Amino acid sequence: MSEKIGTVQEVLETYKKAVNERDSGNFLKMYASDVHIYDCWGSWECKGIDAWRDNVCGWFNDLKENGDVLKVSVEDVVMEDNTNLAFVHCAVTYAAYKEGTDEKLRQMTNRFTFGLKRVNGSWLITHEHSSLPINMEDGKGMFNLR
């Protein structure tokens, strides 16, 4: 890793920018090699950076092929950090647009929790959990609560 991510807030900014630019290299630099992620597009979990890379590259490639650009906003951020560990929970909204237009195609807000650790002066995500409320009557995700 060449460029250090010096603050937890910089991790969130890097996340937004990398998704918007569909830049898997910049996106993955925020994650520890032993990252553990829950909510991986139909999988129970994702363990390790190699498995996560496969998911992320697939996601970004699909966006590129469809000509979709995601604009990410992070709201309701609650952050607790000390010298080497940090905990963040927030709402992350993904708004999809056709590349080169202002036409919004769809939008979804997920609840996120991140666990981070400082490694060689850089904050890395070691645990990530994303969730979406479920309608208990039909078992479907509730995408439009926000």
From TrEMBL:
Recorded coiled-coil stretches: none
SnoaL-like domain ranges (all copies): 8-134
Record's protein name: YybH family protein
Lineage, highest ranks first: Bacteria, Bacillati, Bacillota, Bacilli, Bacillales
